[in-house]
Design brief:
mainly alpha; 2% strand; 356 residues
Length: 356
Amino acid sequence: MGKGGNANTVRKTHSSVLMAERAEKIQKSPKFYWASGDDMEEPHVQRRKEIVQAHPEIKKTFWADHFTKYTCACAMLLQIFSIHLLQGAPWYTWLFCCYTLSGTINHGLTLAVHEASHGLAAKGVTMNRIIGIFANLPMGIPASASFKRYHMEHHRFQGEEVMDVDIPCEAEGWFFHSTARKVLWCFLQPLFYSLRPMFVNPKEPSKWEFINCAATIAFDATIYHFFGFAGVAYLAFGTLLGMGVHPVAGHFISEHYVMHKGQETYSYYGPLNWFTFHVGYHNEHHDFPFVTGKNLRNVRAMAPEFYDNIPHYHSWAKVIYDYIMDDKISPYSRVKRVTLENEEIETIRSRGGLVK
């Protein structure tokens, strides 16, 4: 058999193995949306090619936002100033500010970490890692280094079981199906978001994760020294509250939960984008993950025919409400796909993932 025949045999074997493993995975988790046919590959790569071909000028948006580090510094100073002002304040005032102010600021900083994870906060990998850790400090909980490792796989393998830890586990879908339980699930979002990767796709800690932890502990210790436990709690609980039932946390649900059958990524075009590095432009972001947040609106403006006519949102609060109240929507409302064989997944995992 010639070389071309061998290649065809390999592709046929690969396809048969993949389809067998896909059938097995669907049988184990039948309630998710499983991509098939033309939707087997994630949609963003193809749309990116079409947009670049139709609008080559879009390449002018491909640059880092060097202002991000200054935004992070201002947010950190505002958090410290808030802690200072709230010393001796009644508990209800402290809690209100923790939810509204600290929750919003720290959630915004998680999106600064997101920007840095894509290399969009500066030139060079190392500088982006440093800015990501710097943005992480007022959050009170180390996250930046680990987030980068998992988030790159979310983009590269969107919807792929094991590799995309953004997708809820089978147990989450099984338990959090009623209105009351979905409310609880929303409150526990920070817990699932941080612990799910450790169970689904655990990774050996890298040196950057140790640096991240050391920097966060040092910052927390400094806050404790000057402001006591209340200061550290204001930062940490602000992070947790801001990632739970909070308007800005609506993007966790709006981004990829299937509200309209046949579509797996959704954009949000509302005012809260100004507090979240424009992460609401999520179709645009997945189409062009190397475009900084502030330029994503320019992507939409340059190529409106690709974005204006697909379902999108104008209210994250309504997204949360609809998710909780609609019986047809649950943690199962996510698209899964099988494009990698189990052996390929294990090979990637054995290397420590795409990023170390």
